[in-house]
Automatic annotation (TrEMBL):
Gene3D superfamilies membership: NAD(P)-binding Rossmann-like Domain
Family membership: Belongs to the UDP-galactopyranose/dTDP-fucopyranose mutase family.
Keywords from the UniProt entry: FAD, Flavoprotein, Isomerase
Stated name of the protein: UDP-galactopyranose mutase
Organism: Muricoccus vinaceus
Uppermost EC category: isomerase
Domain UDP-galactopyranose mutase C-terminal span(s) in chain numbering: 150-346
Entry-linked PANTHER family: UDP-GALACTOPYRANOSE MUTASE
Length: 383
């Protein structure tokens, strides 16, 4: 008998499982169809002993003191500031996001102040009456040439759509700087879990009130395991059997390679914005983890239309379709929908944790605790 069934052992599910078990003292069954916990953040040592990420690099960063403090209960940290270079078709490597160094290297300039760089951008920026698309965001800030160099091809590969067809939120995530700050993120807290993400998740779920079942589909236990309430972190349209049609997601495939040399590239990630290659980026894990090893492991990412859902596709018609599922979710009693896939939002890891913690606060105020002798209200998973 379980008080809660949680479907999905990623950040959303694991955060809620731990809070429910620890604070409320309730019994939780958490399942995942994959053979491991930690969701897309899952990491493991490969044959060379290098800690690598099976689903591509995950770099933790947040401005939330509360999220950082919460996760610090389950891990020590290694300070790490992520840096990215863009490799252009001519082989030139320049910092990404665009900053003063990028502008100087591309144009053989020697701009020295932020005002000079802003003047450079302003001279090339195109007036856009209303910024709606991802293309509008970039050309209105830095002009057509930098847009073509860094954003158009990369976005077309990543999303299978032209930036003019995507919501402005996509390229708005990538800043443009007039200084020489070459960090990809500027958040207050920038760290990697010292022992890896998987170790952090295992500590999070190591509680006598939590039962973990990996390699378990929801359908395999539906109607067989009794529970009172559910947290769903999978695709919201899947929960409702795609009643209104499938919500579009982008997927990824990964090529993992261990190379017989100490280093492969000068920083954690190198982006390939041009359409002359089919992949978007290559990441090298030793930069992230600080490991010392005579060999190195890299991952090349290939965007895909089919496969595991990774990214909700931000277009107006998709947002409208999601609203239909959201209305169904809101009307479903005793089921809480949490996470990137369940709420069809392009969240970072820290945002998922924040959403899960906020959901727990709502549970605390709206869901009464069951007394130890109360065996009523249990349902056989499928109601």
């Amino acid at each position: 008998m379980f008080d809660w069934l949680i479907v999905g052992a990623g950040f959303a599910g694991a955060t809620l499982a731990e809070r429910i078990a620890t604070v409320r003292g309730e019994r939780v069954l958490i399942i995942d169809k994959r053979d491991h916990v930690a969701g897309n953040a899952f990491d493991e040592q490969d044959a060379a002993g290098i800690l690598m990420h099976r689903y591509g690099p995950h770099i933790f960063h947040t401005n939330s003191d509360a999220v950082f403090a919460h996760l610090s209960r389950f891990t020590k940290w290694r300070a790490y500031e992520h840096r990215v270079l863009a490799r252009l078709a001519d082989g030139k490597m320049v910092p990404m996001p665009i900053n003063r160094t990028t502008v100087n290297r591309l144009n053989d300039l020697s701009l020295v102040t932020e005002d000079e760089v802003e003047a450079f951008f302003n001279a090339r920026a195109e007036h856009v009456a209303e910024i709606r698309s991802s293309e509008d965001v970039v050309v209105s800030r830095v002009g057509r040439e930098l847009y073509e160099t860094f954003f158009r091809g990369y976005t077309r590969k990543q999303w299978g759509l032209d930036p003019s067809e995507l919501d402005k939120s996509v390229t708005s995530r990538v800043p443009t700087r007039a200084n020489t700050d070459d960090r990809y993120f500027t958040d207050t807290h920038q760290f990697m879990p010292l022992d890896g993400y998987t170790a952090m998740f295992k500590r999070m779920l190591d509680h006598p009130n939590i039962t973990v079942m990996t390699g378990t589909e929801f359908g395999a236990i539906k109607g067989k395991v009794p529970y009172r309430r559910m947290v769903w972190t999978g695709p919201v349209d899947e929960f409702f059997d795609h009643r209104h049609g499938k919500l579009p997601y982008r997927s990824l495939t990964f090529k993992h390679e261990t190379l017989d040399r100490e280093w492969a590239q000068p920083c954690g990630t190198v982006n390939y914005p041009g359409e002359e290659v089919p992949f978007t980026r290559i990441s090298e894990y030793k930069h992230l983890t600080g490991q010392v090893n005579a060999k190195t492991t890299i991952t090349t990412e290939f965007p895909a239309a089919e496969g595991d859902p990774y990214y909700p596709v931000p277009r107006p018609e998709n947002a409208e379709l999601y609203k239909r599922y959201e209305a169904m979710a809101d009307a479903t009693p005793d089921v809480w929908f949490v996470g990137r896939l369940a709420t069809y939002r392009y969240y970072n890891m820290d945002q998922v944790v924040a959403q899960a913690l906020a959901t727990f606060r709502r549970i605390e105020t709206s869901v009464p605790l069951r007394s130890a002798n109360d065996a009523t209200g249990l349902v056989a998973t499928g109601a």
